[in-house]
Amino acid sequence: MALIETFHLSHLPSSYAVHAALYRDVQNASFLRQQLLSGNTEFEYAFLDATSIISTMHALAAAFRATNDFMNNRLRSRNVHSETVFCLSPNNNIADSFRRFGVNDTTTNLLVIKICTGGEITTDGVRTHLSRAVDGAAVPFIDESLRSMTDLAKIKKIYKIGTSNNVGSAGKRNKSDISPTGSQMVLNGNQAELKERKELEVAILGLMALRGAT
Amino acid sequence: MAAATDNPPADITENLPDLPPSTLLPPLFNNTNPPPELLTQGAEALLYRTTYLVPSIPCALKHRPSKPYRHPILDARLTKQRILAEARVLAKCRREGVNVPAVYALDWEKGWLLMEWIEGGTVRSILDRWLHSTPVGVDASKRESELKDLMSRVGQTVGELHRAGVVHGDLTTSNLMLKPVSTADDTLASSHEEEGKQHQEQREQHLQGEVVVIDFGLAMQSVQDEDRAVDLYVLERAFGSTHPRAENLFQEVLRAYGESFKGAKVVLRRLEDVRMRGRKKSMIG
Ligand SMILES: Nc1ncnc2c1ncn2[C@@H]1O[C@H](COP(=O)(O)OP(=O)(O)OP(=O)(O)O)[C@@H](O)[C@H]1O
Ligand SMILES: [Mg+2]
Q1: Where does it primarily localize (chain A) (predicted)?
Q2: What does each C-alpha distance from B10 to A130, A205, B63, B74 come to in angstroms?
Q3: pTM for this model (two decimals)
Q4: ipTM associated with this complex
């Protein structure tokens, strides 16, 4: 049974809904990809490889920008779902964005996003269809689930962050946290890791927001 | 919340238009529920508090409305350039580890920017309150060292900004915020009783917290000593005019700045030239 999380994202019309479902151990990724390639209208989803997603906020931010661009008639790709994949990208290369963030034949960690811009499709409808379509183990769409899936090295490479003088600065921040002038907090390993992830996440949100600016 | 007590200066409140603020919002935010809360209206931008994606993530909305007196094509170009310049500098700073609000989303055609909400208040308002309060049972030297500590954190943060290759352009005490450490790390700290206690103590010292730089509307990328020195000069004048009682402690800002990055000492020497010119100018003009 699919575990669907439904969002009414801030600022979007209240009739709009964003549905998200997360899976591990997916067995039929190539079938799903094929449905997108053949333009099967029963498969109007963004199928994302969850190893390229750092957090729920990361994915929802892409859905938010795609929907705003949709409402302003400035989609750069076919529809709001392909646009969601594209909106994860730090650059304007659509094909690249599909390769990096979209489902591929070897995907086992899958994030499904469905954006409903009218009231016609219900959470139940999405659940029923996905339960039939995706062969995998449903897990809740929460940061903790994504944390075990994310390929941090790949993400840093895609967004070109984490090299010497930048976001590794989460490390730098920690240092100032234990200095006498900063806060008195001493972070243990796990907290430092969460903090680094958070810094990476917001750096990514900035790059996504600025994509396409000239 | 915290910032709602951070009253805007009187001149800003007087400039509020007769129209209900909602009619000035970019279209996307017209049906936002609850409506974005207007905080300040400057000459160029309106600042609201609202949420991003989900109700639990607060954010600041900065809107640069179009100016009816400008030619529409020029207006669209200027709006786009300014909102983009600000977002680019914010994102760059954050990537380089400078304490600034994160960029969440933006629409340069519509002139809006959503960024991370910074809890706490401006250094200006916090200093105002702190300098005018006279707590009992706290000795003067302790208060002095607390103030000194804040000044040094300001210097360090400005140093980090400059090291990242950015000059602010309007470095005043209103464009520096003090973010309580407890909000970001409360959940982490509360698991340990010892740390929890420490946090309680920190909360009671009002000048504790992380210095965060905001308002990059006039910022530019520069590594010139002159530009950096002018930033410091503007800040020095700002402290002098808003907080004369804190002025003598500005040396502490400069001391910490001087140690914050490699080229900082040279900038401090340049600052002396800038001051001199400033004095001459005010004598002539
Ligand atoms: N990210 C934020 N989080 C919380 N409060 C903020 C944030 N950004 C701004 N504020 C509050 O809003 C006030 C005005 O913001 P800001 O300085 O960016 O606008 P402005 O001075 O009108 O802009 P500009 O000078 O570009 O026209 C600040 O003094 C601060 O109190
Ligand atoms: Mg300002």
Answers
A1: nucleus
A2: 57, 35, 21, 32
A3: 0.88
A4: 0.91
